[in-house]
Structures are given as structure tokens and as C-alpha cells.
Specification:
Layout: E1 5-9, H1 14-25, E2 29-34, E3 43-47, E4 52-53, E5 63-66, H2 79-102, E6 109-115, E7 126-127, H3 137-147, H4 150-154, E8 158-164, E9 166-168, H5 173-183, E10 196-197, E11 199-201, H6 202-214, E12 220-224, E13 230-231, H7 232-243, H8 253-260, H9 263-268, E14 272-273, H10 276-280, H11 290-299
Parallel strand pairs: 1-2, 1-5, 2-3, 5-6, 6-8, 7-14, 8-12, 9-11
Antiparallel strand pairs: 3-4, 10-13
Length: 300
Amino acid sequence: MTPMRIAITGSTGLIGTALVRSLRADGHGVVRLVRHLPRHTDEVEWDPLRQKVDAAGLAGCDAVVHLAGAGVGDHRWSDAYKREIRDSRVLGTAAIAEAVAAMDTPPEVFVCGSAIGFYGDTGDQRVDESAPPGDDFLARVCADWEEAAQLAVEAGVRTVFARTGLVVGRTGGAWGRLFPFFKLGLGGRLGSGRQYWSFISLHDEVAALRHLIDTEDLTGPVNLTAPEPVTNRAATAAMGRVLHRPTPFPVPAPALRIALGEFADNVLASQRVIPQRLMDTGFTFAFPRIDDCIRAALRG
């Protein structure tokens, strides 16, 4: 294996932290794009909202993995926070794509984060990468997010959009917020529980991102989800089984809307997303089933 040099935005998030650890464990060099003056030799400064990147720091990189973006569920969705969600993705992606496109020797691949929110609410329908975009706020954000990478595409850089589902992790992301409640026996289904959740273990998320880097002919959108999505009701039951706790406290849809505002509609939406292109290119899931994902998350 030839060591690579890989630049990563969002390196301190749930996925970014795990990806950096995995790459370094295998002897690869990692350059972390940070929003402050560099304090370490592996740091390169960038400002996503002002669309500024220290492009010189990307010299010699074989790949760029762009994961940065404001947390969708971190705050109630005011108009201002919705702008932050969008701008952090669209402006940041445009800045990275422009920097990559302008390099004398650009990286071989640009892996741009995206999300299965691209498809909107798809109900019980199984959808793969050929499905059209939805028409809600997050679907429009995802479409604009991917479009913002166009400069890299036009420059001939192999560009892949990692449409990630719900990452099952213990210490971060949406699923990480569920664990404390379920451990206390306070968990329950959300709304009717019939909505599909397309999940992926943190281990498989990192492995899939590395698969996107390494698979030389892979371009365009790729769904990063486990092969068999489950309903929220089934995910709730699995949490109860693995944690050996009851799950007696369903949260009615009206209560979710009071607590979360507009974001509740996305929590209650159903997305039965299939990782067709991952499977077609030979990717093997270590944790394809929800119970195994939860156990893996508990092991850290």
C-alpha cells in the first residue's frame, strides 16, 4: 500500500475524527483544514463562509475529503440557522472546489459530503442513487451542496458525493443523542414509528469513505447507508434489546413539532435508501444489521 496524503475538512466531527484515526493508523498523511490560525504542522487554514482556502497547504494531496457543515439538529430551525445550515455547506464546498480546480497538480479525487436528505420523504419506496431530488428544505440544500462542487468536476477531478444516512455512533451525531435516553429506559418510537431510517455504522461509514477514495472509476452520488433500512419502530426495539432496557415512551408527532419546530418533519420523514453503487463496486459491510451497529457503537 502506497501512503497517500489526504486533506480533510470537518476533521473534528464524529465522522472526521474517526476517518483521521483510520487513515493515520494505516500510515497515510492527513492534512486538517481548520478555521483558525494553524497551530500544528498538519493544519491548513480555511474560512468556508468567506470562501477562502490556503490552497498552498493542499499541494501534494492525493485526495480531499470535505465533511464540514453546521449540524442539522444542533439548534431549532430559525431562518438564521437555516441560512447557516445551507451556507456552511454550499459556500464551503464552493471554496474547496475552487481551490482544488485552481491547483497546478490537483488531487486525484474530491470526496464531497452530502446526505440522503437529497431524496426528501420517500415513504416506503426503496430508492437508490438514480432517484430524483426531493423538494423540502434539506433536499434543496443537498442539491445545492452537490452543485457547488461543479468547478472541481469541470477541472477533471474525479468527484464523488457521499450521501450519508444516519450514522450510528455513541458519542456524536443524531444517534449519539439517543443513547442516554435509551440507557435510562426513557426511549421510545418517534411519531408513528413507521418511517424508515436508513442507517450506517460509524465503522462502515469510514470504510465506505475510504472505498470512495480508492475506487478509481467511481464518480457522482453514492449512498452511504446499510443495505437494509429499518423503521423507527424497529430501530427503537433494537435499542431496547441491545441495551436491555424497556422502550415505553413514544413521542407523539405533535410533541416533536412543539419541541423541534420545522426540523420535526424531517425526523418523522421516511427514507428507505439503498446503497446500490457501494454494493455494485464490491463494498462489504462489517455491520449490515441494526443490532450489530448498535453493539459496535457501544464498543466505541
